[in-house]
Amino acid sequence: MVYAIVRAGGRQEKVEVGSVLVVDRIAGDDNGNVELAPVLLVDGDKVTSDADALAKVKVTAEVVTDLRGPKIRIQHYRNKTGYKRRMGHRSELTRLKVTEIK
Fold first, then answer.
1. Does this model's pTM top 0.90?
2. Signal peptide location in the record (predicted)?
Protein backbone atom coordinates (compact mmCIF):
# COMPACT_ATOMS: atom_id res chain seq x y z
CA MET A 1 0.00 0.00 0.00
CA VAL A 2 1.50 3.28 -1.14
CA TYR A 3 0.30 6.61 0.19
CA ALA A 4 1.77 10.04 0.76
CA ILE A 5 1.18 13.02 3.00
CA VAL A 6 1.22 16.14 0.81
CA ARG A 7 1.13 19.86 1.49
CA ALA A 8 -1.87 21.38 -0.29
CA GLY A 9 -3.62 24.65 0.42
CA GLY A 10 -1.90 25.34 3.74
CA ARG A 11 -2.88 21.93 5.11
CA GLN A 12 -1.49 18.42 4.98
CA GLU A 13 -3.59 15.73 3.32
CA LYS A 14 -3.19 11.95 3.13
CA VAL A 15 -3.51 10.83 -0.51
CA GLU A 16 -3.42 7.57 -2.45
CA VAL A 17 -3.68 6.97 -6.19
CA GLY A 18 -7.31 7.53 -7.15
CA SER A 19 -8.26 9.55 -4.05
CA VAL A 20 -10.18 12.80 -4.47
CA LEU A 21 -9.50 15.82 -2.28
CA VAL A 22 -10.76 19.39 -2.07
CA VAL A 23 -8.16 22.14 -1.55
CA ASP A 24 -8.00 25.91 -1.88
CA ARG A 25 -8.11 27.15 -5.49
CA ILE A 26 -5.11 25.91 -7.51
CA ALA A 27 -4.55 26.62 -11.19
CA GLY A 28 -3.40 23.59 -13.17
CA ASP A 29 -1.04 23.58 -16.14
CA ASP A 30 -2.21 23.38 -19.77
CA ASN A 31 -3.27 19.73 -19.36
CA GLY A 32 -5.03 20.38 -16.05
CA ASN A 33 -2.37 18.66 -13.92
CA VAL A 34 -1.00 19.84 -10.57
CA GLU A 35 2.11 18.64 -8.77
CA LEU A 36 1.80 18.47 -4.96
CA ALA A 37 4.74 18.71 -2.54
CA PRO A 38 5.17 15.50 -0.50
CA VAL A 39 5.98 15.67 3.21
CA LEU A 40 6.01 11.91 3.90
CA LEU A 41 5.89 8.77 1.73
CA VAL A 42 4.84 5.32 2.94
CA ASP A 43 5.60 2.41 0.61
CA GLY A 44 4.64 -0.80 2.42
CA ASP A 45 6.90 -0.95 5.49
CA LYS A 46 9.30 1.69 4.17
CA VAL A 47 8.66 5.24 5.44
CA THR A 48 10.47 8.14 3.75
CA SER A 49 10.64 11.55 5.41
CA ASP A 50 14.12 12.69 4.35
CA ALA A 51 14.03 15.94 2.37
CA ASP A 52 16.62 14.77 -0.17
CA ALA A 53 14.73 11.54 -0.88
CA LEU A 54 11.38 13.36 -1.06
CA ALA A 55 12.79 15.75 -3.67
CA LYS A 56 12.78 12.80 -6.09
CA VAL A 57 9.16 11.86 -5.31
CA LYS A 58 6.41 13.29 -7.52
CA VAL A 59 2.74 13.36 -6.57
CA THR A 60 0.63 14.32 -9.57
CA ALA A 61 -3.07 15.17 -9.52
CA GLU A 62 -5.53 16.29 -12.17
CA VAL A 63 -8.01 19.13 -11.70
CA VAL A 64 -11.52 17.67 -11.74
CA THR A 65 -13.46 20.89 -11.22
CA ASP A 66 -13.39 24.32 -9.62
CA LEU A 67 -16.10 25.00 -7.10
CA ARG A 68 -17.10 27.31 -4.27
CA GLY A 69 -17.57 26.39 -0.64
CA PRO A 70 -20.64 27.03 1.48
CA LYS A 71 -21.60 30.59 2.29
CA ILE A 72 -20.39 31.74 5.69
CA ARG A 73 -22.39 34.57 7.24
CA ILE A 74 -20.60 36.95 9.60
CA GLN A 75 -22.54 39.36 11.80
CA HIS A 76 -21.19 42.13 14.00
CA TYR A 77 -23.40 43.78 16.60
CA ARG A 78 -22.66 46.34 19.31
CA ASN A 79 -25.17 46.79 22.06
CA LYS A 80 -26.91 50.18 22.59
CA THR A 81 -25.21 51.92 19.65
CA GLY A 82 -27.31 50.87 16.68
CA TYR A 83 -24.25 49.30 15.03
CA LYS A 84 -25.07 46.21 12.94
CA ARG A 85 -23.04 44.80 10.10
CA ARG A 86 -23.55 41.66 8.04
CA MET A 87 -21.00 40.17 5.66
CA GLY A 88 -20.66 36.92 3.75
CA HIS A 89 -17.82 34.83 2.40
CA ARG A 90 -17.47 31.83 0.05
CA SER A 91 -14.14 30.06 -0.39
CA GLU A 92 -12.81 29.32 -3.88
CA LEU A 93 -12.00 25.59 -3.99
CA THR A 94 -10.59 23.01 -6.41
CA ARG A 95 -11.41 19.29 -6.49
CA LEU A 96 -8.33 17.18 -7.35
CA LYS A 97 -7.94 13.51 -8.22
CA VAL A 98 -4.53 11.96 -7.53
CA THR A 99 -3.28 10.12 -10.61
CA GLU A 100 0.30 9.16 -9.77
CA ILE A 101 2.78 8.75 -6.91
CA LYS A 102 6.31 7.93 -8.02
1. no
2. none
What is the amino acid identity at position 69?
G
Structure confidence by residue, pLDDT tens digits, 29-51? 999 999 999 999 999 999 999 99
- The string of DSSP codes covering 27-73 is ---TTSEEEEEEEEEEETTEEE--HHHHTT--EEEEEEEEEE---EE
Q: Name the residue ranges covered by the structural domains of the chain.
A: 2-101
Give the pLDDT confidence score for residue 51 in this predicted structure: 95
Give the C-alpha separation, 5 to 74, whole Å: 33
Rounded to the nearest integer, the mean pLDDT of the chain is 96
Kindly give the pairing relationship between strand 11-15 and strand 33-43.
unpaired
Return the bridge partners of 76, or none: 85
